[in-house]
Amino acid sequence: MKRYINQLLAGMVLVGAPVLTSCSSDYLETDPTESVSADVATATAESGYMALNGIAKTMTTQQYAWSQGCAGENRIFVIYENYGSQDYFYNYYATGWAPIMNLQYSTRNNTSYDAYPWYYYYTLVGQANTIIAHIDEATGEPGLVKFDKASALTYRAYAFEKLLHYYAPRWQDSNNGAADGIILRLDESTGGMALSSMADCYKQIYKDCDEAIALFKESGMDRSSNEVWIANENVAHAVYARAALTRQDYAKALEQAKLAREGYPLMDNTAYYSGFCRPTSEWIFGSYGDASENNWYWSYGTQYACNGYYAANTANGAGSINIDLTNQIPDNDIRKGLFLTPDKFPSYNLSDPTVPDAYYLTYGMLGIHNDPLWEEVDAYIEKRHAIGASAMARPYAPGYYYIGGHLKFYVFDTPGVGYLPFIRSSEMYLIEAEANYFLNNTTAAQEALVALNTTTDRTPGYTCDKTGNDLFQEIVNYRELELWGEGVGFSDYKRWNMPISRRGLAQGGSAHSAIAKNIAANDPNWTWVIPQWETDYNDAFKSTADESAE
């Protein structure tokens, strides 16, 4: 195992696309196991940019040493964020996946579930470190050399920040950062290394982001407008804002969120209904997802898009929202319009004794034995599809509709081809609202919500005069609604130190009984343990653990 991990971190970089081009066919067309030496990958400014594309490909490519679906951010979104969240349900799979959805696997250090984020994000770190270590000697345009290094620093900061979400405690439980964080690998060495404190980890993320931002400015360059998979200055600010928010450094989070969204205006409602599968004006960071690099059955869209392969051909559905959340949102909100919520259907009555339907109370399926309800839901889907995404295949072809089923994520080619948003400017407005709330800037927090909800008419006529805990809950609700399915749900509730409380179908909620659970905020399962694969190979880590146990 030591040899295997060493190979991952020792100067091997995936190569990518020709530099500063915009054609989808130019994107990396190699297997993810193909790599080049550090000398070749960083010999020129142009090859360094190709190596950045290689990092981006790792973020959405199936890693073949792992189980099906272990495809970078695709996997992280689903298993580590959506499934374990308050408001994302996949009822068809709830029985089998209940241990993951109910946060029951995170203390098992010998499972692939525990190990995968560690493996994946340190793969990104290793690739970034190779670029950082060698790119200064590259030939070619000096501005591009600086851009390459800045982008690599941003990818590394992104990976460190995500690792802390899963393998470290909440900041408020860390004794002001004294608790163990993660291993800070900052070069190409692969020997034993102890965990760093959380304070040092966040200090390094800040340092990486600061250096990246300075280099981006010095470079005078930016990615092409549609290359959302390449980290640029806005991505660095956004990662900085996320890290500062999680660290409860609210002034820094506020400052960086505002900078991150510059040049990325909120999309209008037409774009909002266009399927979340192609970049829009507010995509700061995202995946590559063109059909020329089809990830087939390992893409996010194959299983989790409303017109992806599984939703279009099976009874699985594609994920649904918690109606306990949408019940708190005005019915005219355009985001609520992306979900099959009961307010839209006059024939909906979960407790109607004249419609004995086990599918209602087992999975939350709509209209299996209720023709009027089925017709209402089917007509709504047809209307929504015609308005927003008519150029793509229709959702849910078999007619298996779920309470709260989504019409948010589409694919534009089979079985699951589509881009995936990692960071949007909408999130930056929500970070501003949350940061201002904790800074006691009530008016500014209200204004951030109004800016998000009113300027594009996402909630027509929206105003906010709430204060105190009511204002905080308003921020929580709109963050959950805005970013539903975008891979932040678990981390948000962990950061907020809030319990998960899911109501079952029989109780008027929309969760399958297997996941209709309460998970306390102080439950130890909120933090994944360091994988055995790391502790077995890393002698320095084992020594640290032994000392702390004495």
Short account of what is shown:
The protein has 550 residues and is mainly alpha-helical.
Can you walk through the features of this model?
The protein has 22 helices and eight strands. By secondary structure, the protein is mostly helical. Strands 1-3 form a two-stranded antiparallel sheet. A two-stranded antiparallel ribbon has the order 2-6. Strands 4-5 form a two-stranded antiparallel ribbon. Helix 17 runs antiparallel to helix 18. Mean pLDDT is 90; it is low at 1-34.
Which sheet architecture does the biggest sheet show? Answer: 2 strands, antiparallel
Helix content: 40-55%
Poorly predicted regions are 1-34
Beta content comes to: under 5%
Q: Can you give the mean pLDDT?
A: 90
Task: Label the overall shape.
Answer: globular
Query: Whole-Å distance between the termini?
Result: 27 Å
* Count of discrete alpha- or pi-helical segments spanning 4 or more residues: 22
Class derived from helix and strand content: mainly alpha
- What integer value in Å does the Rg equal? 23 Å
Give the strand line-up of the largest sheet. Answer: 1-3
Provide the succession of SSEs: HHHHEHHHHHHHEHHEHHEHEEHHHHEEHH
- The count of β-strands is 8
